[in-house]
Amino acid sequence: MEIEVVQSGVTEIEVDVMVVNLFEGATAPSGATGDVDSAIGGVISELIAAGEITGAESELTLIHTPKSAYPLFKPTRVLVAGLGLSESFDYDAIRRVSASVIRKLRTSRVRHVATVVHGNCTGGLDTAASAQAVVEGALLGSYRFLKYRTTDKYRTPDVSKLTVVEGDSLKLPAIKLGVEKAIVYSGAEILARDLVNEPANKLSPSDLADTAKRVASENGLACIVLEEVDVIKLGMGAYVGVSQGGPRPLKFIHITYEGDPASSENNLWLIGKGITFDSGGISIKPGPGMGKMKGDMGGGAAVIAAIQAIAKLKPKINVHAVCAATDNMPGGSAQRPGDVVTAMNGMTIEIDNTDAEGRLTLADAIGYARSKNAARIVDVATLTGAARVALGDGVSPIFGNDDELVDAVLETSKTVGESMWRLPLDSVTKRQNSSPIADLKNTGGRGGGSTTAAHFISDFAGETPWVHIDIAATSMLDITRGWMPAGATGVPTRSLIELAMSIGKLS
Ligand code: BES
Ligand code: MN
Ligand code: ZN
């Protein structure tokens, strides 16, 4: 979808559809909606009076405005989008409304859409951020993964152009800024979605490493890919143990963005779980739903995608994206329950269940980051089915050992609309990870599955400020929700970008 910003009145622009809006409970159209209403003989007012237009969120009313009837009105159609109640209106509402608008217009075979910036005239909302939300809603909400469809791929073609219309020239620079940010943020989140939606036979650890190299070279970033021999030399026994059950070679990916080369201690390490397929290993998973485990590299996808955007936005901070990529397979050389492995930091782990593989790969990725003097670590992982039990699929549980970093992550997640909630790392669940024969075991029994997994990782993070985001439930959706179409959501790519931007601004 091509995006442009144009200074124009809403009645003067030659487009297939002009999108305006109405708050729930408004008795008369005002602003741009009022301008359209007057130009088309009060049709919107009439529909409000008749009760057809109420302004309820994502209520979409299409009005046909043919030249024969309205010779002075340029758009061929008008879409009135309900914004919901003004009290609860925020950037998330803008993203949701914009997403429903663009999907509705696609089914109506519309090609060129113009829209006002929803929330532009609302007190408390920033013009640039509102424009960003409108465009993010459109780009993210119209996302589809169609590359393997050969038959009805173009049944409902995408809207080809979105024009953001603003009459006030003083607001144009802010709108342009917001639109540019939206393109970068959404582009990254869409890269993450594409990687997660990609089937495992098309996305091996090597393919993921190739994507990382491409992202790096396109954005002037350094990218190192370590092979099995390299990580064995580094002592990453936990990671290698996961990898040994399948034939596709592991790839340890490390991309570096240098935004503050003079202060190497000003750094942020983004570590993503990168299991390109999780069969469970010898502790094999049941058949139903196993196909979803192609998405078990969602954390890795998010960190690679985030650093792409970070490279373009250039915050003043050094950012590292790390992904210990591998399959988890049950081949003849697979590790067994009962095995003991030694992680890079020297700790020994009893493998209680080979399906608790994510924490093993993260343990060594974190060991690597700490060996390179990581100052802050944020790991992102499709780690535990228990995350869905705890919080459902709308909120990602997070854990951490540093209140400041936890609060920074929560704050940025709010800004971008990727909901997170902190859970405690209490001393009772911590004991569930003890092993009779090793330093710890890789499962923690029945209660608090997300918490015991987080405790396990925290033992490797040690004293380094660290946050863990469990995206097992939020990384893929069964049904479309707002700007997240069914399938991969790309969560929490935009939070990670925003986090680097906010820390980069302070330093
Ligand atoms: N990748 C899974 C977690 C997962 C489950 C992600 C559902 C997305 C959707 C992870 O590797 C796993 O298998 N976790 C186990 C841990 C258990 C064996 C302690 C789980 O959650 O059942
Ligand atoms: Mn698993
Ligand atoms: Zn897994």
What this model shows, in words?
The protein has helices at 31-39, 43-49, 91-107, 127-141, 172-197, 205-218, 228-233, 237-243, 298-313, 358-371, 386-391, 403-416, 427-430, 449-461, 493-506, and strands at residues 2-7, 17-22, 60-64, 77-82, 112-115, 161-166, 222-226, 251-258, 267-278, 318-328, 340-342, 348-350, 377-381, 396-400, 420-422, 440-441, 466-470, 476-477, 487-488. It is built from 15 helices and 19 strands. Helix 4 packs parallel to helix 5, helix 10 packs parallel to helix 14 and helix 12 (403-416) packs across helix 15 (493-506). The protein folds into 2 domains: 2-186, Leucine Aminopeptidase, subunit E, domain 1, CATH 3.40.220.10; 198-506, Zn peptidases (Aminopeptidase). The protein has an 8-stranded mixed sheet, with helices on both faces. The protein has a 6-stranded mixed sheet with strand order 1-6-5-2-4-3, sandwiched between helices. The protein has a 3-stranded mixed sheet with strand order 11-12-16. The mean pLDDT is 97. By secondary structure, it is α/β, with parallel strands linked by helices. Strand 11 and strand 12 (348-350) form a beta hairpin. Helices cover 36% and strands 20% of the residues. The longest helix is centred in the middle third of the chain and has 26 residues, at 172-197. It is elongated and about 80 Å long. Ligand BES binds at residues 278, 292, 296, 353, 355-358, 382-386, 443, 449, 472. The site of ligand BES has 16 residues, from loops.
